Amino acid sequence: MAGVIGSMGFWMTIIVYMMSLVLAQQDGDHQFLHYDFRKADLACDGMANTDDGPLHLTNDTVGSTGHAFHKTAINFTASSPTSYSFSTEFVFAIFPLQKPPVYSHGMAFVISPTRNLRYGNNQNSGLGIFNETHKNSTENHILAVELDTNQGPEALDESDNHVGIDINSIFSFAYANASYFDSTKGRNKTLLLAGRKSIIIWIDYDGKEKLLNVTLAPVPSPKPESPRLSSSIKPRVPLLSTFVNLSEVFLETMYVGFSGSTGSVRSNQYILGWSFKKGGKAESLDLSQILDPPKPKSGSKLPLILGSTIAAICFLVILGGLVYLYKRKKYAEVLEQWEKEYSPQRYSFKNLYRATKGFRESQLLGAGGFGKVYKGELPSGTQIAVKRVYHDAEQGMKQYVAEIASMGRLRHRNLVQLLGYCRRKGELLLVYDYMPNGSLDDYLFTKNKMRDLTWSQRLNIVKGVASALLYLHEEWEQVVLHRDIKASNILLDADLNGRLGDFGLARFHDRGQNLEATRVVGTIGYMAPELTAMGVTTTKTDVYAFGSFILEVVCGRRPVDPERPVEQMILLKWVASCGSRDSLMQTVDSKLEGGFKAEEAKMLLKLGMLCSQSNPENRPSMRQIIQYLEGNASIPKISYDTAGFGMPNISNERVTQMTATSSSANFSFEDVTVLFGGR
């Protein structure tokens, strides 16, 4: 009898082992690595083909799509949180086919429950993934990481060079202008997606943490001759990092691949190497094996010769007319009937052109994602700063000009005065008071200016910005929410008085009006927790940012600095920790070399922490803040327990990565944009 039982136990063990192998196979890791796509098991449709080796998604066909998916489906089961984890990296290149370069729709990495994403006649919309019927539905069960090179009206894009995370919708869940973190510079550098150069992208999802990271970097040129792994050039700071639960998006069976589309503008889109793994880290690509894009086929030179000859003849014939038209259009402006009420605030382009010496590079004060800023001088001798913003759409322009006119009526000694505007086809010029001493950010963090600000000057700057915010929140005819308070947006006049500037993200609303959720804009470390959670901006979210700004000025540190030790990386957390040990004075900027008043420093540090409370109701109003700063009221006692503060939402893994890789004291986070219901 004992022998029979022992035999049964043996066979039961074998059966359980075999079943575990089957289950492991069903839910196991799925990985592949491709350099020559002719050998890959891909299902291609539309324009997509692998004839020359690379995956060629789109070509010179107008208004069409190309798709390429792995034929084998991947199982995403709910056996464990990590079963939804995946990692992929691929090298792509986009070549515009029109001169001068005009950018087409773009392309995307896609995880979809189906390989068939062709939607009949309207197949060129939504990067070849969505159409008008299916562009925003939870029934799609689609994750896409878009490489968008077209500022299309159908997607309400704000940039023609951005990376976005799309979940079931063409309206991005999160997006950012294409760039990569340069550790030698300590800041992000712009990447042109359709720049005819190879770019590598990493997409990593941690199913346990529910964290999706997207990272970009340029592929070194010329291509390495000896083996070099892609991991050696991967920036440690991702371009996009957002929390999302993909178990609510994926079905049990999904396909991975790519989609691209063209509208009236065409481009060649290539995938030159691809690695993927489910349940772990994808194998690094060998950059020396990455294929080069096929060279354009050269045709007969006769059409070129004839075209050049005809063009030369036409040029000689109409040269006089062109010169006349050029001089006439050089200073052309757009002026519509509804703008006449704003004429007192309007500048002529001719005057601005002459004031900035033709917008010469020598007059350039700075440049950012929204345009360039030039120094100018009017005939009256008044010095101005002219911000030149380019745009492609006139939709909403009337409302925007009305808001500019409202900004121009703001009057306060601690605000950078918006003097007026000028409008031309495709661009808007904003005219501001010129601030000769630049931004406060330079004085706090740029080495050649670090010692120029005394303690009394810092305190005066804080008081000035507080006064400006009180005016915006309570003393003007409407409530004005600035939404981007930080040291780099505080400009210093000739007397080093702080002036709050850059109202590009500001919102106006009537008193008592309930604001609806909108896209979240701001900078990590300055955004209140309720802002990132619900997308609703209030005066208390400005107060939170002002608290971060106070700590920045007193401590001489950015709100989040990956170069610091882990316990000092988040400034608010470090100050609270020092406060709990009764050592607040250790947090004061060492560059002051003790030249400050301890009581004033302690007051500012406590005020910064009071403004940083996680509960908005526990934060003071700007009127109360003014009373604290002027000594007319005492700051209430606060607990140094970090649970009461609204700490920046940064995962430990990401903090560790940033610590290990950052090498410059000038590190600054990119502005973060999270969408709630559209762009």
TrEMBL record:
EC number: 2.7.11.1
Membrane-related topology note: Single-pass type I membrane protein
Catalyzed reactions per annotation: L-threonyl-[protein] + ATP = O-phospho-L-threonyl-[protein] + ADP + H(+); L-seryl-[protein] + ATP = O-phospho-L-seryl-[protein] + ADP + H(+)
Gene3D superfamilies on file: 2.60.120.200, Phosphorylase Kinase, domain 1, Transferase(Phosphotransferase) domain 1
GO cellular component: plasma membrane
Range of residues in the leader sequence: 1-24
Keyword terms of this UniProt record: ATP-binding, Cell membrane, Kinase, Lectin, Membrane, Nucleotide-binding, Receptor, Serine/threonine-protein kinase, Signal, Transferase, Transmembrane, Transmembrane helix
Cross-referenced SMART domains: S_TKc
Protein's recorded name: non-specific serine/threonine protein kinase
Organism: Microthlaspi erraticum
